[in-house]
Write a structure and sequence with these properties.
Layout (H helix, E strand, L loop, with lengths): L4 E9 L6 H9 L6 E2 L13 E3 L12 H4 L4 H17 L12 E6 L6 H12 L9 H5 L3 H10 L5 E3 L6 H14 L5 E8 L3 H8 L27 E2 L1 E9 H6 L6 E10 L9 H15 L8 E3 L6 H15 L5 E2 L2 H4 L6 H15 L1 E2 L23 E2 L4 E8 L3 E9 L4
Helix pairs in contact: 3-6, 7-13, 10-11
Length: 411
């Protein structure tokens, strides 16, 4: 017998703010978090100078120095987003966290990059003066999951998800499954990413970054015929997932229910997306939720503003969900936050579903003719009553994820 899984807490950090009210105000005002990174002028050969940085974030005085020793910026954002989510859930400092009933499923594309330089100095120059006992812990792929677990004393299962752009959504999906199938009662789930020029360089080498360096407010442009590539961002978001009866018994406020999840890979190409397996993932989430395409009221798209990605995604979405369901891409506001994007988009998707207002895709003015004919939300946000929202993400390696959330008002 399977169990129902609900969301009882949410929190995050983005380039447009740390709470939904601030983020919503910025979106309604047409503001994005994209900036020209003057410091990147240092990097010869890097074409893009654009990013979506989280500015002014600092928890060094908020948390004990001993606890911070094992955290790079990515873990600090993850731990802070989790604090905010636990507070919303009414679980911050609750003894339940250390009961063994709470696990963590969390990820990032990579750990922090500064320790990598220290290890490079060791191999290249033969000195280890910048290495410490925690250098590897800050760098390792599961640094966010481990630091969250240790900081909050979580002694349940740990599921690290380091799958590039699906790290956050896989974290939520695997947490959902852990509760659904009776392995945990609660899970801390999500993803985080810290900004680093190396991540911009990854896409720069593929000629996939935007180089509108002097007009950051006009890019990225998902699904637009005049797009010129993606912009890298950073941030973190955490969802607290809980078994439905457990949440009811403790009087928790339920924010949404997770009713469907699917993940797969195309087994074909490392960087080129495949429409057919995207379709399989989206249909798989519908099947998992026992829903049809007609039940989906809104689509939170991946929408990176790359030609191959936008076209494949839009065609896959149209094939499974039809032409009439509204769709937007939040990467138009934050850039592509890689391991964090799936969790940020889930968090804000639930917030928008609660409020009944959905932001338009920023900078989308003229839909690319190669993209599918879909109801793209563009120009201005929309007031929409949504019962079921689907959130899709697609990553390098052909990894695809699809999550379906039900409005708490429909429970």
């Amino acid at each position: 017998m399977t169990r129902r899984v609900v969301v009882t807490g949410m929190g995050g950090v983005t380039s447009l703010g740390e709470d939904w009210s601030a983020i919503e105000a910025n979106m309604r005002a047409g503001k994005t978090g994209i900036r020209r990174m003057e410091s990147w002028d240092f990097y010869d050969g890097l074409n893009t100078r654009l990013a979506g940085p989280v500015e002014g974030f600092d928890v060094d005085k908020r948390y004990p120095r001993k606890a911070l020793r094992s955290m790079g910026p990515v873990s600090k954002m993850a731990v802070y987003a989790t604090e905010r989510a636990l507070e919303v859930a009414g679980l911050l400092n609750d003894p339940l966290l250390k009961s063994g009933k709470v696990g963590v499923a969390y990820g990032s594309s990579f750990g922090s990059t500064k320790p990598v330089i220290a290890f490079t100095d060791l191999i290249r120059d033969g000195h280890s003066r910048d290495l410490s006992a925690t250098s590897y812990v800050k760098m390792m792929g599961h640094t966010t999951a481990v630091n969250i677990g240790v900081f909050y004393g979580l002694s349940g299962r740990v599921i690290p998800t380091s799958s590039a752009c699906t790290s956050g959504s896989q974290g939520i999906g695997y947490a959902y499954e852990a509760i659904k199938f009776g392995m945990q009662d609660l899970m801390v789930a999500g993803g985080a990413e810290e900004l680093c020029p190396t991540m911009a360089a990854v896409f720069d080498t593929l000629y996939a970054t935007s180089i509108r360096n002097d007009t950051p407010h006009l890019t990225p442009r998902p699904f637009d015929k005049d797009r010129d590539g993606l912009v890298i961002g950073e941030g973190a978001a955490t969802l607290i997932l809980e078994e439905y009866e457990h949440a009811k018994a403790r009087g928790a406020i339920i924010l949404a229910e997770i009713v469907g999840f699917s993940t797969n890979s195309d087994g074909r190409h490392i960087t080129n997306p495949t429409q057919a397996t995207m379709e399989t993932a989206i249909q798989g989430a519908l099947d998992n939720a026992s829903l049809t395409a007609a039940d989906i009221d809104f689509i939170s798209g991946h929408g990176t503003a790359t030609e191959q990605g936008d076209v494949a995604e839009s065609q896959a979405t149209r094939s499974v969900l039809g032409a009439n369901t509204p769709l937007h891409s939040l990467k138009s506001y934050f850039g592509h936050s890689l391991g964090a994007c799936g969790s940020i988009e889930a968090w804000l998707g639930i917030a928008m579903m609660q409020g009944g207002w959905f932001a338009a895709t920023a900078n989308l003015e003229n839909v690319d003719a190669a993209c599918a004919d879909i109801d793209y939300v563009m120009g201005a946000g929309r007031e929409i009553a949504v019962t079921h929202l689907i959130s899709n993400n697609f990553a390098f390696g052909g990894i695809n994820t699809s999550l379906i959330f039900r409005n708490a008002a429909a429970l």
